[in-house]
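New to this. Please check this protein:
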Amino acid sequence: MSAALAVEIRLLDGRLSGWGFPRWGSAAAAGLDLHACLETELELAPQGPPALIPAGFSLAIRDPGWCGLIFPRSGLGHREGLVLGNGTGVIDADYEGPLMISAWNRNPGGAGLRIAPGDRIAQLVFTRVTRPTLTIREAADDAAPPGEAGSRGTGGFGSTGRR
């Protein structure tokens, strides 16, 4: 078993310590809670433009065998429509700038979604990175007869159906 990943965190917003950062929601949680380091409350209009919200820290992963992934918190996404404007944020091992959370209100109508300073709005998960050796083939090489290795996907996107 390899040594645990060591990540340096530089706090950019002094309020984070008072909000309990850094912490995971439970002993077995994969995601580190990320707080909205806003100066004032923010309202995201339904299906309006996304907003970049500072997470209040930067980190240094440095090991190219690892990266960080930012995901929405499941309850906020399901109940209130708060999702990431970019789907999933990827923090490369060599990025050491401030973390920002792209927040978007996916709800089609109704009231805006309010985010207050200190709200836990996203989560950061650390995961391993595999960089395979890639082999480039010409398009003509892709014609494998049906039933042989490589034939899956000939029906296009969604070809396996729903059941």
